[in-house]
Amino acid sequence: LIMIGLGSILLPCLAVIFASALQIFAPSMRLGLENRLGQERNERPDYAGYAVFTAVMALGGGSGILIAGYPLIYLLVSFLILTATVIGGAGAAVAIAAVAALMSHVGSWNPTLSAEIFVTAGLLAGVAGRKNKEWSALGFCLGIILSYPLINEAALWRVALVVMFPATVLFLLVPAQWFSYIRHLLSGSGRGNDRQECSPGKIRDLASDRLRELAGIFEKLAHTFEEVSPAQDENAGQDVYQWLEKAIASCCANCQSYKHCWTELFYQTYREFLDLITLAEMKGGVTTADLPGKLAQSCIQSYQLVTSINYLSEVGQIDRYWRNRLNDSKELVSYQLKGVSGIMAGLAGQLKVEVQNNEDLQLMIYEALSRVKLHPVEVSVTGNPSRQMEIAIEKRGCGGYGECQRVVAPFLANLIGQGVSVWNRDCPPQGRLHCTSTYCLRRAYTVTWAARQTPKEGSLFCGDTFRSFVLKDGRHILLLSDGVGTGPRAALESQTTVSILEQLLSSGIDRDFALQMVNSVLLLRHPPEETFSTVDMVAIDLFSCEADFLKIGAAPSYIKRGREVTALRSNSLPAGILEHIEIDATTRALQEGDLLVMITDGIIDSLELPDTGDHAFDWVASILANMDVLGVQSLADYLLEHAIQNAGGKSVDDLTVLVAQIVRAED
Length: 667
Hints:
Elements: H1 2-25, H2 47-61, E1 66-67, E2 70-71, H3 72-87, H4 90-106, H5 111-128, H6 133-146, H7 154-173, H8 176-189, H9 200-236, H10 239-252, H11 258-264, H12 266-283, H13 293-298, H14 302-352, H15 358-371, E3 376-382, E4 390-396, H16 403-416, E5 420-426, E6 434-441, E7 445-454, E8 464-470, E9 475-482, H17 487-506, H18 511-525, E10 535-541, E11 546-552, E12 557-561, E13 564-568, E14 584-589, E15 595-599, H19 601-604, H20 619-625, H21 632-646, E16 655-664
Antiparallel strand pairs: 1-2, 3-4, 4-6, 5-6, 7-16, 8-9, 9-10, 10-11, 11-14, 12-13, 12-15, 15-16
Helix pairs in contact: 1-4, 2-3, 2-4, 3-4, 3-5, 3-7, 4-5, 5-6, 6-7, 9-14, 10-12, 10-14, 11-12, 12-14, 14-18, 17-18
């Protein structure tokens, strides 16, 4: 009764397992019209599926081979099932076990022994194999032991012990990198020339070519806008003659003196009308006292003429203003299209630069992580190995333990021989399968910073905006913008400037193009005389400790090294005034412990003293040279409080101080 009950349970299970196996391998038998991994249609046959069927059928043909009186087929099939758990996972192990059970009925194997043991052991090996190779072996052995009640003959049980357990030992002795190579081969990366068109290098070349084509399209669009703008300027010279025709039509057409003025005295009247229109443009309007020559003496509709000329002048000024704004916007679009074209061309060039050994490094990292049982799922290496390399790893979940920070980062540093730090990570809590993390080369330096600001007394809004962030290429950016004026409008301008710069720089866009784009946006949003903003930017290279200082109409910045203080000044206008901005840029080599002080003009102007030379007395530089600094926050607080005291105990302008210090990165 026990055997009948076990058989009634086992047969439906075998049916379900074999149906699952058919679902796994059915796509392979459709002549490769659809890959079972869902990657591409009409690609190529699933070589993994064909390899499994070929191996099992070949083994079936050798079922009569004996070694020391025991069938060799059981050892080989057992080893194949265990290998499948490592290469293809639980699905592949169960599929091979089911196919082996089917082949036992076709060949000369013992059907009972094959079906019970293969399916049970393969199922448990596949489930346990999610952990690692050792767990696969343990699950397989457990499956053999649990199959004991299903085997009636002691001789058959002896076969299982003597043949199938040695297969497990053989499986454990095979190096893990061998299985990685087989997985790599069957996944398609080692199929030779027939897959070269899908290799990462070919994909990079294809993407590079597409980006270059798009760059050319944007360049042509930019030239199109450049060609349209001059035509608008040429039409502007015809305005005076159009006003002349309209003035004649409105004032002179029905006048009784029309024939006298425009027939007998045509040239004189024509010249005096042009003079009157020109005068109206220059003065912004005319009166009857401005009528020249014969018009002043004999025009019987002088008031109506003056009114008409003033109206046409006002309309013309409005029309000319908006026409200029339209031309400015076209130039902005043209410049931005050129910038986008340049960005795409730059990206295409970067893709063309073949970063050697990245694929080998990916495989090396994957195998190394596998050897130490960190269970990687996918490893991707991009960028330049000497500076901007990024390593993205997806691995089995750690339950929120933080393996990426505590284990993986030190392991990678030891593996590649360079310091590695975690750029970002996602370690989900218990119950999620995978963790994802991104690593970059560790910087030699880091920046600690602090800021203090206060609005002008009586205002709720501070017109200054500051920001600090780190780019993936290893540069720490400090931004400070002063929206000229005070209140909400100044705050809006400075926030716009800083936000756009942060987004553009974080996207990898060139700094000069980013600054020019900010300037163009400010020009387009408001007339230059209404509002504009300064830009004070420091880009600190955390590898070499070099700093680029860029100023556009900004207040001085300071470098404090011990008692030595260096002031960096700018003579350029703020952004949003001129079409093309002038950037004051300088590069300085910094050292560990150096302090950077960035301020807005409200700080430096809080103390009004007579000019002592090229510049007024710089009280900030004087204080920095004669004080010992206890910390970046305390220095920022002290300078701002001192500025308020200079102005009689109140803030007469928006005040902002940003202080940063270069610190050696911890190992």
